[in-house]
Amino acid sequence: ENVVNRIAAGEIVQRPANALKELIENSLDANATNIIITVKAGGLKYLQIQDNGTGIRHDNLDIVCERFTTSKLQQYEDLQEISTYGFRGEALASISYISHLTILTKTAADKCAYKASYENGKLKGPIKACAGNNGTQITVEDLFYNVLARKKSLRSATEEYSHIMEVVGGYAIHNSHVGFTLKKFGENTDIKTSIKSTVVENIRILKLFFLKLDPRNVDVNVHPTKHEVQFLYEEQIIDKIKSCIEAKLLSCNS
Ligand code: ADP
Ligand code: MG
Asked: Domain named DNA mismatch repair protein S5: which ranges (predicted)?
């Protein structure tokens, strides 16, 4: 059963940047306004995300990495109106099958933080009380340690790092109220990359294609990582984009 889950996990998480995407979405779903990401070897050795969001309640920590554990879907009808990124409860479970995963978290209601490690979807060892700030810190170590083919095919830390920059940059642009920091582990923290400043160049272009849709008109059940979604009323959307671009071009020419 672990092998099957591991293969499925490897399909959802193709490279460190995919894992990071899921973790960033969880932080945003938890209303974080500050997200600090630290990586080592392009995320293959070490990938950590620290947020200042709601935290995970102590009594949920033992099940949080089990498949289909989600706090984001209360009833089937909710599927019609999903406005959070997550809802399948598969991301943490998947990551826990193919890495060493540790969660340190504190809610505002708790007096102290709690730390727990996971393996194959399950809690590994006891949950320990410790010091920590409100929010959640998730550390993913040795990603793909048990998926040897993948480990061999992803050899370039530099390439993985550039995928990570791309992911962080994308979320930074679309969430301007959230501070994003990307650091390389072990390097002088003064030279931390401030993603915000590196992506400013692209903002103008990306804004052109910023689509805001009623969540009821998007079917997110097409692809497990939401890499693809199905737009209902696709024709109308395309028409709308066309007329926006035409209007823009006209105003540029006049
Ligand atoms: P999903 O996002 O689809 O619910 P995940 O496996 O990504 O599933 O996460 C499982 C659950 O863990 C979430 O529903 C949420 O309750 C909790 N969780 C994960 N990451 C965070 C975070 N950074 N802050 C608060 N809660 C989190
Ligand atoms: Mg999620």
From this structure: 144-250
